[in-house]
C-alpha cells in the first residue's frame, strides 16, 4: 500500500512536522502539571488537514504508552477517536484498528466510547442542503464509498469483540440510542438497519434484541400511516421513474425476483410508506440470506431465526394495533417450509385457547390465525382443515359451556371477545378456501363442511353473525347458502331489523353501548401495499376472487347484487361500530374444553 509515494507496510514513517515532543514525553509533562504541550497535541490531532503519515505516526506512539491513557486523559482519547480514519488508506485503517484493540484491552473504561465512535459511521455522513434559502441537514445518498466504509466499521467491531468478549452486552444500548429518527431519509434508515443486521450475523447472542429494536422502529412507521392514506397517495401521484432501484441491494434485494415479473419502477408516493418499503426490503432480504445458502434451505439456521422472530412477534407485533406490513416478516419466513407455517399456527392456537391470556392477545391471535389460513398460498388444504377442526371444536365447546352455565347468554363483546374472533376467523377462512376444499371431490368436501355443524354456531344465543364484520357475514352467508350448508339470512334479517347496540362489559355487569372499535383490522394479512418489498410477497399471497353472480348475497330488494371489481372484498368497508368485534382487556375464564383434548397437530421439522 503506497501513500504519498511510500510503502507504509515495509518502510518506517518519515519525520513529520510536529511540535511538543513525543507522546510519552508529553504525558510525563502533563502528569507533572505542565499542560502546554498536552493541549498542543490535542490541537494537532484535531487538525482537519491531518495527513495519513501523521495519523500513523501518532497512533504508533500512543500504542507504545497505552497503559498510561487512564481516565484522566479522557479528552485526549475523545480527540483520537474523532480522527478521520474511515475511508483512509489501508495502512491508516489497520494502524487505527490495532490502536483500538490495544486501547480496549488495556483500558476497558473506554470500551463504550470506542463502540459509540464505530456506530456513528453506520449512516451516511451529514451534508447541508439548501432549499429555498433554508439549510436542511440530512445524509449524503451519493457516497460511493459507503460499502467499503461499512466493511471497515464491522472489522473494527469484530476486533474489539475478540479482545473484549462482553462487547455485545454494552453494544446493544448504544445501537438503540443511535437509531436515526424515523423521519430521516430512506437511505439513512436503510443503512443503519443494514448495519445492525450485519452485526447480528457475527454477534448472534444479540440477534433477537437487534430484531426487536428494528421491528419496533418499523412498527412506529407502519402505524403512523393508514392503509387508506397509502392508497390515496398512490392514486393521486404521477408515476415517476425511480433511479437506482435496480442497483445491487444491501442484502441482494433483487435476487429472487422473477425475470418475467414486471418491475415496479416507481417509489412509493407516500414518504412514510417509501421509508417503510425500503426497510421491509432490507429485512426480508436478510431473512432470505440467513435461511438459504446456495439456494438450499438451512433447516437449523432457519429454525433459530424463526424462534427469534417469534419472540419478537409476541413482544411487539402481536401487541401492536393497526399495523399493516411489518407482520409479513413472519408470513415470508413461514413460506420457506410448511413446518414453519404449522408451528406458527400452532403457536397462535395456543394463545387463543388459553383462558389465562389477556383477551386482547387471544383476539389478535385469532385474527392472525384466520388471516394466515385464508391468505397464504403455501398453507395446503389439509393444514387448513386441521386448523378449522381445532377452531370449530373450541367454538362448540365454548357454546356448550354457556348453555350449561344456566345463565342467559347475551351478545357481550367484552365477555366473549375471543369467541367472536374465533368465529370470524372460521368464516373468513371458509370464504377464501372453500373452493380449494371442494375441488377434486365435491361430495367429500361437502360432507366435511356439514360435519363442522356451522348451523349450531350461527344460531347460538351468542349470535356471532351480529358481531362479525358485515362483509364477512354477507359473504359467508352467500357461500353457505350456495352449498346448502347453513342458511344465515333469517338471522341476518332479524339482526338488521332489531339493530340493537352490542354491549361490552369487562366483568359481566351492566353493559354499555360500544361506540368505538379498538381493533379496526381483524385480518393482519390484508393486501400488501408496498411496491418493492411486495414483489417478495405477491407470489405467496391469495388474493380475493370475485364470486359469480349466483353466489352473491341478495340485496335488500331480493335481487342478486353486483359488486365492483376490487382487490379485496373488505376494501372500503366502513361498518357500523355496534356490529364489530371489539378488543377488550377482559378475559373469559370459565372452564372450557381442555387443551389436551383439542388435538393440536404435531409440529416438527422434517
Descriptive overview:
The strands form four sheets. A two-stranded antiparallel sheet has the order 1-2. Residues 1-6, 12-18, 240-265, 504-521, 555-566 and 572-606 have low confidence and may be disordered. Helix content is 52%, strand content 4%. It contains 24 helices and eight strands. It has 606 residues and is mainly alpha-helical. The protein is elongated, with a radius of gyration of 31 Å. Strand 1 (2-3) and strand 2 form a beta hairpin.
- What's the alpha carbon Rg, rounded to whole Å? 31 Å
Q: How many beta-strand elements?
A: 8
What is the residue-mean pLDDT, rounded to a whole number?
81
Indicate the structural class. Answer: mainly alpha
Coarse morphology = elongated
End-to-end separation: 51 Å
Major sheet: arrangement of strands: 1-2
Q: Describe the main β-sheet briefly.
A: 2 strands, antiparallel
What is the number of helices? 24
Low-confidence stretches: 1-6, 12-18, 240-265, 504-521, 555-566, 572-606
Percent helix, as a range, is: 40-55%
Secondary-structure blueprint:
Elements: E1 2-3, E2 6-7, H1 23-31, H2 36-45, H3 52-64, H4 74-81, H5 90-106, H6 111-119, E3 126-131, E4 134-139, H7 146-163, H8 167-177, H9 186-202, H10 207-224, H11 227-236, H12 271-291, E5 292-293, E6 296-297, H13 299-317, H14 328-334, H15 338-352, H16 359-375, H17 381-403, H18 413-438, H19 442-451, H20 454-459, H21 464-467, H22 470-482, H23 489-498, E7 503-504, E8 512-513, H24 531-537
Antiparallel strand pairs: 1-2, 3-4, 5-6, 7-8
